[in-house]
Amino acid sequence: MSDSAPSVAALYAAEQERLRRRLIGRGLNAQQAADAVQELFLRLLRTPRTEIRDASAYLSRAADTIAIDHWRHEQRKSRLFEAEPPDALTVADPAPSVEARLVERDKVRDLEQALSALPPRCREVLLLHKFEELSYAEIALRLGISRNTVMVHLANAMNLLRRHMREKNRPGAN
């Protein structure tokens, strides 16, 4: 700002209303805009005169910056204090629901029934393979039967289980 530039008081008188309207137009309310205009002129007074060529342009740009800062602050505040819908505040219980536990219990009961309905040797081969995780060769050695016979017993057990579960889940069954 050169020495021939108008005094800060004269500049304030000439520019304060235009700046206030500019700030209101950018989202500040009347009180915030009035406070911001005061802040603008304090910034102007703190800035070395050699850094300002056009005081009016400087004030306009500074007003835009204040409006942007205000908008950002409001955005952060609204996100911070935004009311959460009631269901968003509930923490899901990791335990299964009562209904899920009952359904699971029924499935286990159905599987136990299906297993008990298998022929004894098929059941034994299936349990050794699926639950004790023995290979066909290990099962054959333990039971004194051939590896191919183990495969036949396992295939028969799986087919019988599938059939039992299909019948159990058929509409109208139970």
Would you list the SSEs in sequence order as H and E?
A: HHHHHHHH
Q: If helices are DSSP runs of H or I spanning 4 or more residues, what is the number of helices?
A: 8
Structural class: mainly alpha
Number of strands: 0
Fraction of residues in helices?
Answer: over 70%
Overall domain count: 2
Segments where pLDDT lies below 50 for 5+ residues?
none
Largest sheet: none
Report the principal-axis shape. Answer: rod-shaped
Global mean pLDDT: 86
Share of residues in strands: under 5%
What radius of gyration results from the CA coordinates?
A: 41 Å
Distance between the termini: 93 Å
Outline the structure in words.
The protein has eight helices and no strands. With 174 residues, it is mainly α. Helix 2 (30-46) crosses helix 3. It is rod-shaped. The chain starts with 7 loop residues before the first helix and ends in a 5-residue tail after the last helix. The mean pLDDT is 86.
Key terms:
0% strand; single chain; Arc Repressor Mutant, subunit A; mainly alpha; 174 residues
List the helices and strands and how they pair.
Blueprint (H helix, E strand, L loop, with lengths): L7 H18 L4 H17 L8 H27 L4 H4 L8 H20 L2 H11 L5 H8 L3 H23 L5
Could you provide a short overview of the structure?
The chain has 174 residues and is mostly helical.
